[in-house]
Amino acid sequence: MSVEADRSEAAGAAVKEALRRQERVLAAEVPSFARIAARIEEEPSTFEAPAWSARKSARLAASLAAAQVRVIPRAVLPAALVVAAAATVAACFVASVGAAGEAAWWFSAFLLLGAAITVTAALSTDAADALTLAMPLGPQTVLLARLAVVLGVDALAGLAASAAFACWGAPLDFGAVVSSWLAPLAAVAGVSAFASVWTGSPWAAGIAGAAAVPLAVPVGRAAADGGFAAALAGLQSAIGPEVAVVAGCALLAAAVATARRAALARLESA
Question: What is the pTM of this model?
Answer without folding.
Answer: 0.71
